[in-house]
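re: that complex we talked abt at group meeting.

here r the seqs, copy pasted straight from the sheet so there may be weird spacing, ignore it
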Amino acid sequence: MKSAVIVFPASNCDRDAKVALKQMTGKTPAMVWHQDSELPDVDLVVLPGGFSYGDYLRCGAMASQSAVMRSVKAHADKGGMVLGVCNGFQVLTESHMLPGALMRNAALKFVCKPVGLEVQETQSGFTRKYENGQRVTFPVAHGEGSYFADEDTLDRLEGENRVAFRYAKGENPNGSARNIAGILSEKRNVLGLMPHPERVVDDVLGGTDGRALFQSLIEALS
Amino acid sequence: MKITPEMVREHGLSDAEYARILELMGREPSFVELGIFSVMWSEHCSYKSTRFHLKKLPTKAPWVIQGPGENAGVIDIGDGDAAIFKMESHNHPSFIEPYQGAATGVGGIMRDVFTMGARPIAMMNALRFGEPGHPKTRHLVSGVVSGIGGYGNCMGVPTVGGEVNFHPSYNGNILVNAMCVGLARQDKIFLSAAKGAGNPVVYVGSKTGRDGIHGATMASAEFDDASEEKRPTVQVGDPFTEKLLLEACLELMATDAIIAIQDMGAAGLTSSSAEMGDKGGSGIELDLDKVPQRETNMTAYEMMLSESQERMLAVLKPGREAQAEAIFKKWELDFAVIGITTDTSRLVVKHKGKVEADMPITALSDAAPVYERPYTERKPQTGEPKYDKAKPVLASLKTILASPDMASRRWVWEQYDHTVMSDTAQVPGGDAAVVRIHGTNKALAITTDVTPRYCRPDPFEGGKQAVAEAWRNLTAVGALPLAVTDNLNYGNPQKPEIMWEIVAGIDGIGAACRALDFPVIGGNCSLYNETNGEGILPTPAIGAVGLMKDVTKMATVAFKRTGDVVILIGETKGHLGQSIYLREIEGKEEGASPKVDLAIEKKHGDFVRKLIEAGRVDTVHDISDGGLLVTIAEMAMPRGIGASIGIAGLPEAIPFWFGEDQARYVIAAPFAEAEKIVAEARAAFITVAELGKTGGDKITLDSKDSISVADLKAGFENWFPNFMAGEEIPVTN
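got the structure back, here u go
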């Protein structure tokens, strides 16, 4: 499985994504600079967490206009897999590769803590190694992670089983609509989620619940 | 322009200091030169009141690579790696504009660390606010915490811990001390000595604006009611640009183009150029027309004194400008050659074809005034405080855990990204943060500590205790304490009683650092923390770093199993003077501060650390604020595992459970291991007691009274969020 991590100037989970991919797949991902308009030949593109261009405008808004995102869209259009974590999820919604928007947390504060999630959909290349309904714990670390979409869109996401992760009962850290933590694209080859699976692949750091996501990708892409 | 006595005074210079300037210059200074003297001779930049005493601190050890005097201190952590760290205050600006003041404090200390070639890997902060009921406190807490988070989170450096205290003495002067720890290879450490003539001086980072002019001078004066009018001297932070600057500098540092590099912090272009020239023994000539400017028609005076953020000054090897420029262009940052090093040892500033300043650099450094200010000793408070012996112990425990200084700080640290970089092995809330050294099994333990309420009655013992507690916290997670950075926050040094607090505090720190083999490798002084003549509690904050060889052996405070034996290491005389118990339950701040026996401190700590290193113990908590019973409750709350404890033949319950005697730890271990530990401690003449066993969901005393751990936890966790949500808090005075 070959992968690439997109590096915006203020990405700050790019190294974490690289380390997790290296640890889980045995292969070092290509690190692709935001001004590059061409992607290397890869199976998976990761949009990491961070602040892309400072995010003084809406989070991810400027990144959605960057040179590299045209190639990421083309990659997804061809059926290539794209994983957007945290800021990466924001970039995906701003780029209209996923529906909805991520708004300021309901409590109006940045929040960093482990949260309980339920895996809601295992029919995807990102989640096939989880059990349906499995409870996992990933950390969140964001100021703008409140998922919002109109009712029709939310109904459609649920009807098409595209809600991959939901915050468990009482765990919603940001006021997201219908406790949504992560969603799939129509073709199920793009996943955006606010919690950080790449921060839970190592026992020393308090958990390994994120490993199955990478194991799913390895299986799906081999 | 003719320099008038008013101008001299407005620049914070005394008549004697101005006379000295005339002598050093051999003529009347220009207005720009006066401004340069003003900032370089300010307390903030020159340490003129403390330098004489700071020299007494121990700064050397075989593992110290760089002691005080550079942007940050450096220690050897083995395998060719170095830890680089420093703590610095941003008190005055944070009171005036809490969000930007705290944010730029974080940015400044990060630059101090990455300018030396290190990638920052952890941030800490030590915060002090006025009493919770003061009308400004909530606003300041909220602004400071979001400012620290706003900057650190964007930088992608985890903020892994710190401390927060409330006390009325900080009502008009809050303290915001930020610490940054970075990691570098020992053969890639960059210093600020601009050696050699004819080398290009380059400016990189943000453009220069009119913000922050005279910030260093503001930070060197007392506040009065009009201080908020000083808001224009607070700088505005831009963490995005800092992130670019960090990555660009590290990329440039991977080449060998740099001779010297220094961040533009307090006093901006002035101090960075003067310090680099001074350390390299060279002169520097600057052409201000080349400085990237954000505003039009800036004068030489404004440019030299601007404290615009996210800027660096570097001296390159000749001919390497294009290589450096390409890197900064890639990161879309300003890059300009603005000067050259010379062999004249003079700082020459040219602007629009005119020489605006031409002065000997030594006049700004070595010749800066040093004062041995007079001090008057106050008798330390003594005596045994009185207390009501009939008060129920467990009810008091509940009250204490839900009090402002003891309640959980979760509300604070959940606003900081503390897990980014995927190396945080111990998150905030324990004795020390633990951050793995990337790609290895080693880790750094980091803490900040001081108990200001001990420092007013007895500044010497208070200084000792701050160091001892930092050492103990590092030990309690299993780390070997290596070195210290100090952040000395005091009132006006021109008052003999305050000067005594400073001198005694430094002496106390020195005594403890010597006894514990714990050198001071850097630091910062923040004086004049006074408003309308009222000074803060003396607050010598200690930031400290230790090394763990095997992160998997790390200890944490949480009880982990039922049936573990709860063991108390260290002697409990029941010292209630200046304790949390006395303040929260009896409403008194009185008595003697606890004394630290440094030899015993070392003996007990070494004993505990060996147990952790050998993998024999994974549950350890040092005893500090609140005493033994609070410590046990803090071990019970994380996982909701209670304990049944007691001790036979206790003459007085309250001093035993709540006294703040030093050099103590609580550990919990399975029975067989516990028996061995107790026997070994006794054989080593260490006072040790078995208090009982873990289990159940209550804390039970002497098999009689009990209290639910969940109940305790509710009060402990809820105080901070309720307070910040606007719950009414009475004002004490």
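couple things i noticed - Residues 496-515 of chain B form the longest helix (20 residues). Chain B is about 35% helix and 25% strand.
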